[in-house]
Structure formats: structure tokens, C-alpha cells
User: Fold this.
Amino acid sequence: MPEPAKGGPAEFFERVGRTTTQGVEQFGYGAELFRQAVYWLFMGRFRRQRVRLSPIFAEAFEAGIRAIPIIAILNGTIGIMLALQGIHALKAFGAQHQVVFGVALGITREFAPLITGILVAGRSGSALAARLATMTISQEVDALRSMGVDPVRFLVVPALVAMMIMVPALVLMAEFVALAGAGLYITPTIDITMAAYIDQVIASIGVDDVMHGISKSVIFGMLITIVGIVDGSSVTGGAEGVGRVTTSSVVHGISAIVLTDMIFVYAATR
Amino acid sequence: MSESNAPIDDTPVIRVENLVTHYGTRKILDGIDMEIHRGEIMVIMGGSGSGKSTLLRHLIRLERKTSGKIELLGQELDDMSKIEFYNFCRKLGVAFQGGALFSSMTVGQNIMLPLREHTNLDQKTMEIMVRLKLEVVDLAGFENLMPAELSGGMIKRAALARAIIMDPAVLFCDEPSAGLDPVVSSALDELILRLRDAMGMTIVVVTHELDSAFRIADRITVLDRGHILQIGTVEEIRNSDNPRIQALINRRFEEEDVDPDEYMARLMGEQPTG
Assistant:
């Protein structure tokens, strides 16, 4: 093994190199995890490794249903905030009546999916990482393997399926709540009725705008799960290690969501 | 040596040939050769860092070896595909050191898991089988408790119940009596002997507890720094003239010869030369 360089630019480059290789390795691991999860989801029943429904429901309840209040509150607030900012900005041109178009598009295409994704990453992605890390440390993952139960099939598939269904569902709800929140401020301020506001919203956004938000949230759900699992299973050390991977899973999850979002928007708007 | 009427024949259930393993670049096991026979209790003994837990992890394919051969029930482990190995695992039971019970499930659900995953039995039958195994490990009535509500000894017994729920041909136990008081620990030893006698299982136990090893073993493998020092019956190990085995048995700390130059270099934080 080569001696580690000490001090100077060599050490810096070595560190950058190591971090990069580690990143590429983790990316590859995540991709392989996803491939295996898809394999077990469809082929498990033929390989005596059936994916069961009850853990999927349990995950969906924990990551989806229980997240409804916080996601509704924050998206409602974001809706109001966007309306405030929109009217404030457009007032300069005397164009505040155009606010609905911008707010409706912004919410359905960008804000609702992004805010929901970030919240789920912080709430469920980190919980997943902590659970996986604890299970790895206490040899529960080894125990699964030694019982002839594939850990990817048993632990990853239910979480993945639940997230890829629940995140888009939450986003759909978030869009309604955010639009309603925006409407609460916009209708009295620019003096239109709620019915007129709803008409304007429907006229501003098309099915493709809603689908844009929903389809990228499916990817967000997948990313949150895979990042949580990859981080969680990379745990080393005891309780301190669990804390470390839990924190890093939140950072990694949110970064993955924002970066993917940018790429998705770039690809979808060209 | 254990008094047992269980038949011990000479068919090797586990055969290890020239096993070499590494963690990274560090060699952990070197040239391990051993055979474990049907119905035998083989204790793998050694101090910390001797490689005994690593050997166990290789015997159940949790780690990939560098070279050599490991045959379990006549099948080379690495020749099996993942799915073949998962199906093969029904014939194995593993009780991990810390129990490794799933903390989100009750004791009963933990023990039932292999049945649920590998059989099509109905719920009632599975529940009866779980209670049966709980009786065997003296934990009757504990099926609805969570693992966090159990004591250390109870966790180990519950883990043992989970390991034997499929009536495996081979049972692996990692440090079954570590961290337990002498009474509970000897009860666990009795339990292991009973399992072998009643079910004819081949049992591999990894431990550093001498008393426990001498009580349950038919044969003992003594590992030291990745090498096998000796494989033999309890009497043979007791009477071994190998100084390192004697040191281990008599709990003597063996001082290593120190090279003064190397010692100075270590203190100064210098890289070793040559």
C-alpha cells in the first residue's frame, strides 16, 4: 500500500481523489441496489422470495399518511408566500392581476414537488438510514441473510415501492393545498372571487404541468429511499456512526433531489 | 467431555480446505483446514483477534474468502448462486452473538420469521411451532414481548429458538455465553447439549469462554492469529504441550519478545523498515 502523503497539495489531491472514488462507488452501489430491488419486486415470487404487501402498507402509512399534516401546513405556507412575493413583484408594473399564472405554474411544476421531496427526505429518508444502520450494527442484516431472506427484498423493496407511490400522492395533495393557500391571499388582494381564481388556475396550468411535478416526484421518492439505504448500510462504528449516517442521508437526499430536479427541468423544458 | 448417546459418525458435514481470507490487505485466516462431523459439537476457541468470528462468518458465507474451499453438507459454498444459497440456508441455523433479534418485531414474530418466509404453513401451525421452540429454550409465554423487554440471557435463548425453528442440520452459535452470569451461561450450555442429543444437530460454537468450551465440546479447534494451533478432543487440548494453548487454558498472558530498535521506532512514530 502506498504511503499516505502528508501536507501540501499532494494530500489535498489525494483527499479529493478518495472522496471522488467513494462517491462513484456509492453511486454504483445505489444503482445496483435499485436494479436488485426491481428484480425482486417482479421475480421474487418465482424465486421463493415473495415481496409481501403488509410491510409496503406499513411503510406507506409511516412515510405517507403520517406526513400529511406537516406537508399540508408547509405547502399551504409556501403558497401564501409565493402569492405575497408575486403580487409584490408584479405591482411595480401594475400587473398584479397576472399573479395567478405565475403562482399556479410555480407551485405545480416546482414548489410542491421540491418542498414535499425535501420534507420526506428529512423525515423518512433519515429514518430509513437510521433503521438500516442500527440493523447493520446489531447484525440483523446478517441474520436475515443467514435465514435465507434477501435483505434487499425484505427491507428495500417495501420502502422503495411505498415511497414511489406515496411521494407523488403527497405532491398531488401539496399542490392543492398550496394553490388553496395562494388563493386565500390572492382573492381579497386583487379583488376576485374564489371561483374566478380557480378558473384562472385551471386556465393557467395544463395536464403536462401537473404531470411534470408528479413524474419527478416519483424519481424523488426513489432517490430518497436509495440514498437512505446506501447511507444507512455504509455505517461504521456504534451509536455515533448511526448518528453520522442519519445526518449525511438528509444532506445527500436533499442534494440528490435538487440536482435531479435541475436536470429534469432542463430535459423537460428544452 | 460431554456425555452423550447421540451417534457421531465420520461423514464430514463441514469441510474447510486451506482457507485464506483477508480484510482489505490484512490477512485474517491463513491455511485453515478442518472437518466437522455429523452430530458433533465443535467448539472454535481462541483469544480476541484470533479470527474465530471471521471463520464463522465464512462458514455461513457472510464474507467472501480469498482462496481455499468451504464445503457445507457436501456443497461448495461459493459454487452456489445467491438464490440456491438462500434455499440452502433452511438447513442452517445461526444464533448471533448479540441475538440479532429484529427490534421492531415481538419475540414470537422473530422466531416465526423463517417459517413465514420459507413455508406455506398456516398461522395457527406456525404459532404452535413457535411455542414449541420457546418451550425448548425455557421461554414459554414470552412470545408477545418485544426484544427490548428481555434480559441478556433471554435474548440469547430467543435467538437460539429462532435459529432452530426450521430444525436445521447445522447450528452455528457465536459466543453463546459471552456476557452472561455463570448460572445462565451454564444453562445455555446445557441447552446446546440437549439440542444436539434430541435433534442430532451438528453444532459449531465459537467462544472464548474456556469452561463453556470444555463442558460442551466433542472436539475443540484452537485458533491463534489466523492459524489453527490444534484440533482435538477436550482431553487432547487440555493435555496439549503447545505453550500457546497452555497459556490460553491457564489464562496466562504471554509476553512477546521485543526488539528494542523496533520498539523505539514505534514510539517515535517512524515507519517500520524492511
The first helix of chain B runs from residue 52 to 59. Chain B has a mean pLDDT of 88.
